[in-house]
C-alpha cells in the first residue's frame, strides 16, 4: 500500500531510521501532488483544507504502516490516517483505480508493489494539538477523523502521481 508523505518522512534517512531494522518493508516510488489540501507548519506539519501540496509516495507493507501510525501518534489523536483516491492519469478522480468506476480496479499503472491500485493513505494532524496557527473550524464538534473523512469524501481530493 502507498502513503503520501509531505513532511519529515520525505527524507530517506529519516524513513530508514524509522522503518529500518525490521520495522517493515518500504520503498519510495515517486513524487506526487495531493490536490485539495495544503501544508501548514507548526510544531509538526499538517494538512489543511484547500490548495495542493507536493510530496512523495512511500510503498509500505502492513508492519511498516503500523510503525508509521505509531510515529504519527494516531493512537494519541495527533494525526488520523485516511484513504484518498488516485487520479486516473487524466486529472479525474477515480475511486476504484481504473477510470471506469465499476469497482474492479482492473487497469495497469499507478500500482502498488503488490500490483493493487488501492487508494493512497495520508496523515492529517490536529492543528490545535500541533501548534498550527490556523482558524480551521472544519471539525465543528466532530472528531478529527470524521471531519477529515467527510472532507475527503465530499471534495475533489485526489493524489496525482508524477511520472
Automatic annotation (TrEMBL):
Gene3D superfamilies: Gamma-glutamyl cyclotransferase-like
Species of the source: Natronorubrum halalkaliphilum
UniProt key word Transferase: yes
Highest taxon listed in the record's lineage: Archaea
Region (Disordered): 86-121
Compositionally skewed regions (Basic and acidic residues) per UniProt: 89-120
InterPro entries: AIG2-like_dom (IPR009288), GGCT-like (IPR013024), GGCT-like_sf (IPR036568)
Protein name, UniProt field: Gamma-glutamylcyclotransferase
Domain (Gamma-glutamylcyclotransferase AIG2-like) ranges: 3-84
Keywords: Transferase
Molecular functions (GO terms): transferase activity
Source taxonomy: Archaea, Methanobacteriati, Methanobacteriota, Stenosarchaea group, Halobacteria
Amino acid at each position: 500500500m502507498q502513503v503520501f508523505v509531505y513532511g519529515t518522512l520525505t527524507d530517506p534517512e529519516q524513513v530508514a531510521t524509522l522503518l529500518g531494522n525490521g520495522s517493515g518493508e518500504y520503498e519510495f516510488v515517486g513524487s506526487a501532488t495531493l490536490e485539495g489540501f495544503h501544508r501548514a507548519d507548526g510544531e509538526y506539519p499538517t494538512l489543511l483544507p484547500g490548495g495542493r501540496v507536493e510530496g512523495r509516495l512511500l510503498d509500505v507493507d502492513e508492519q511498516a504502516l503500523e510503525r508509521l501510525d505509531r510515529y504519527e501518534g494516531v493512537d494519541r489523536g495527533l494525526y488520523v490516517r485516511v484513504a484518498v483516491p488516485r487520479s486516473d492519469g487524466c486529472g479525474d478522480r477515480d475511486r476504484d483505480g481504473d477510470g471506469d468506476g465499476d469497482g474492479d480496479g482492473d487497469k495497469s499503472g499507478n500500482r502498488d508493489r503488490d500490483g493493487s491500485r488501492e487508494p493512497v493513505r495520508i496523515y492529517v494532524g490536529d492543528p490545535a494539538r500541533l501548534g498550527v496557527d490556523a482558524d480551521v473550524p472544519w471539525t465543528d464538534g466532530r472528531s478529527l477523523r470524521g471531519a477529515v473523512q467527510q472532507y475527503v469524501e465530499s471534495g475533489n481530493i485526489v493524489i496525482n502521481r508524477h511520472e
